[in-house]
Amino acid sequence: MEYQPKIIAFLCKWCSYTGADLAGTSRMEYAPNVHAIRVMCSGRIEPTFVLRAFRQGADGVLICGCHPGDCHYQEGNYRCLRRFHLLQKYIQQMGIEPERLKLEWISASEGKQYAELVNSFTQTIKELGHCQVKETMEVLT
Amino acid sequence: MENQKTKIKMAVYWGSACGGCCVSVLDVHEALFNVIAEADLVFWPIALDTKYEDVENMPDRHIDLTLYNGAIRNSENEHIAKLLREKSKILVAYGSCAHLGGIPGLANFSTKKELFQRVYEETESTMNPKKLHPQVAFEVEEGVLELPEFYNDVRALADVTNVDYFIPGCPPQTERLVEVFLAIVTGADLPPKGSVIGAGNKAQCDECIRKKNEHKTITKFNRPWEVVDDGETCFMEQGILCMGPTTRTGCNYRCIKGNAPCRGCYGPTPDVADPGAKMMSAIASIIDEKEPKSIDQVLEELVDPAGYFYRYSLPSSYIRRTVS
Fold it and tell me: pTM of whole model > 0.90?
């Protein structure tokens, strides 16, 4: 059977989760590898969440928020953007491919874009293969 | 001599450590006499000629209080940690290394293979044409010579055995140790097992003596030598990275008072799962840029985020070693 990656997606309630919902209610088909977690704002997504996802065996982490300027809380998505950039730098140092962590802006009307994003991200992760974080952390001596 | 009260039995041991923690115990100065009046030091390699055998021959739970400092780097560290656990009523992880992995934990950026290659083959002062590496056992005429096994990963004390309390710091402030010691000697109510003791529960920033703005912003990170510190404004507001936002109080701001930013040796505030991640969260919040390009420009000055944010806590973080 073809390798099926595990992907965790953190979606903000106001734009991206609604966008993902739209993809669903519009009966768009997309890769089933993404496990979506709804958060109130992309600014709520702490680096801890992302690292914990990797530690527990995620092969990729997707973060989605409102487009710049559209944040329900005015600038949560900018915080998210800055954390993302810092995290990218950090995970590279720890030997995790930067492609495994992706940030995209999805508005409430962009169901199609969400479906395409999930498909393309799943494809990227499939090409990268399984992420070894969980296994590496288990080896103790 | 008839009225001699029973003294408590105390041990201090170093695992993978620099010795600073043991020295911090000696830093009680004259108060050491008060300590000795209350406690018999039964095992303390830095100060007393005691042997592992002496500890092995003790009955279980013979020692009242053991301060274990240093990380777990090799099989000897682990063996003694487990041995002292058996022999002690209270085992305290003393100092940053035992608490979170500490500075030796930064070796988790490399593998054992890389470390051995560097140390035994490549360092500038090394001549080792046969590329000899230390062996765990080596046979000679007289018998077998043994060395402890060097592990691939550095771990904190709690990763190999049960720890009753944690006293953070690099090294812990001696005043805090005296407080804890007195609490144990006088039989005061001790906090629940697994607690961090001898430290506060707030973040350094909460009680910092420097002047702070409500809305902190950073547009450029500076190395400390690039800025003439005015001696009173928050380091972060001057663009100097400071671990204050996520570090526990308890050290009396020794670094800050000495005009140096906090390095985070007291570890994270309570309930923080990953200290560095919390710090990344805090730092990213105050960078005053909104465009990806300018954010990258600011972050360019942050040369080594992993090493900086996890300076004392790499082995206890979620991604506790590099993934190969």
Answer: yes
